[in-house]
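Weekend entry, working from home. Most of the wet-lab plans are on hold until the incubator is repaired, so I used the time to fold the two sequences that have been sitting in the queue since the last round of cloning. Logging both here for the record. First:
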Amino acid sequence: MEFTFSLQTLLLVAIFSLLLYIFSLYAKPKKNDSATHGFRIYPLVGTLPDFLRHRHRFLDWSTEILSRCPTNTSVFRRPGKVHGVITANPQIVEHMLKSNFDNYPKGTRFRTLLQDFLGTGIFNSDAGVWKTQRKSASHEFNTKSLRNFAMDNVALELRSRLIPILETAAVTEKKLDLQDTLERFAFDNVCKVAFNVDPNCLGGDAAAAGGFMAAFEEAATLSSGRFMYALPNLYIIKKILNLGSEKNLQKSIAIVHEFADDIIQTRIQEKTERKDEDLLSRFIQNPKNNPPPISQRHLEQKILQELEFTRKKNDKSIGESYTFDELREMHYLHASISEAMRLYPPVPIDTKACEKDDTLPDGTFIGKDWFITYHTYAMGRMESIWGEDCCEYKPERWIQNGVYRQESPFKYPVFHAGPRMCLGKEMAYIQMKLIAASVLERFSVEVLMEKDECPEYLLSLTLRMKGGLPVRVKERIV
């Protein structure tokens, strides 16, 4: 059944493409300003007929069109909701890139077409995701040490590889593909600065790295080719059926990701042993960029340091119970527990009833006998409440000048709020802190779950994990 549907779809696409081609040979454009100066707009299909004729020379063709437009700007429209403006006007460029920047993100179409290749990295993200990555990367790129590292690598690559190749070519008078040579030079240099890995594409036998370079180039080419389809969503059908260019694209992307993942995982394991100057090492060494397993170790060390400070201050040994006042001084442990409950509240939702008609502060009407539910679990994941990093586990958000800072209970209703505020809130914190402190200072706890595996929830009156939480406990060496 699925095969029949797929075959029918392909036949329909083929027939449509043939009819479209014939139509493009005889169709006449609408009589409007665009037909006079800009891209010609045909009935139903927009600029598609001319686009098909000229897409093999799209840059030159579009340049010719824009040069004839009074403001070097024209509307461009194709089937599939591809409707926009192409410009070569500096004032418009300034408007979209600076004056009205927030109104012109990359947008859904751009991000979707390139997501298989670029994911949600800095080159393929908008809004908060982009701002976070931009801020982190901006700091690293402005360091003097990175600039020196990059300069040293370029100088070494020039001296040891590029110059000797050019010298040999000059002596032997052998034909040299300069584009290929410079691309290999650039690729070696980028890999060195980004990962401190030398693929040696320019010199020596580097089959594996050369394969990575070829795969990267093919993935970039095929990904950009998605923008040139006559039918914008045709690539989705080809991807599902694993056909043609999409089949090759997925193979290339797999090679690129495998190469990069191997480097990243190796570097994470060597984190404590290496202090390299490349970008990857800098991001890993920056706690804000650490992946979850490293953050967990970082968290554990911070709590253990706080416990050690408290013991020394009060002349206690490991195993002795903490007093109420000593527990109150453990601000980071308090923050760690609050942050855990922000993301995983014991009571994830709570419901009330409406006694009489009402209008909520946002203008929403609620009628008599309707129910109203506040979703504590969702509130912990709202960017409007907790900021761009709302889904990250980050105890530091609760700390101000080294001291735990309370949040409004209406922002953090884990213990309810108002007249029904939980009476046992403070006692609950004291108990949780005492248990956590007593366990962590004596034992290390390893969760026995697959990497990136997320527990399945059992939604009852309280939030629980299906199948429990399997762990391995080891006694710490004191």
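Second, folded right after the first finished:
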Amino acid sequence: MASQAAVGGPPPPDHPIYGTQGIMHGIVLGRRVDGLIKYSLDDRVQRRSPNVHGHNGIAVGSWFANQLVALQRGAHGSRMGGIGGTIAEGAFSIVVSSGYGKLNDDRGDIIYYSTPRGADNTNKYRPAKPTRSTRLLMTSLENGHPVRVLRSSGFRGNPLLPSCGLRYDGLYRVIRVRDVANRHGGLYEQFVLLREPGQPPLVGLANTVPTQQQKLDHGRIKDGY
């Protein structure tokens, strides 16, 4: 459990997890109104903007302890949502996880990706009303800009997902959109993303990232500073 004295203050610079070389660098601990620990971005640490197309200076295979850290490092533009971007420029990044059940289909170099509202649509003739996330991906389809894809830990039935944290798996392009029926028979829009060639193989990344040390460090996040 995080130290009472640490809450609201900066971590020691040499802390192995929250210090300048730690996996949680740039994150500070605070306390919610209900007394539980919360994690926030440290305004004293410079952030990289995630609103950039392409790798954004991030190496394929980079690992992040959680989505808040990915936001701090400029890998992904949302601390909670699965898609980061702007209406004008489209999606800069997406997170692939075990969420949304069968709405998504991760086949490695090809990803069939959907937004959550599609699960509830019951109209067999018209897809669910477009959401902001849907519009982001549609813009990416239209402008052809690559999208960063991060895979998040989760369902062990997908061998490409990391055992903990998030891994940056490189650039994909949205190549088409199709209408698919959900479990109710209602239609939803599913986007097809194709991985750009010339990047490190996914199998190698899945077998080596996170490292054993990263796994150990991840288990110490809850200890605070």
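Plan for Monday: verify the second prediction. The mean pLDDT is 91.
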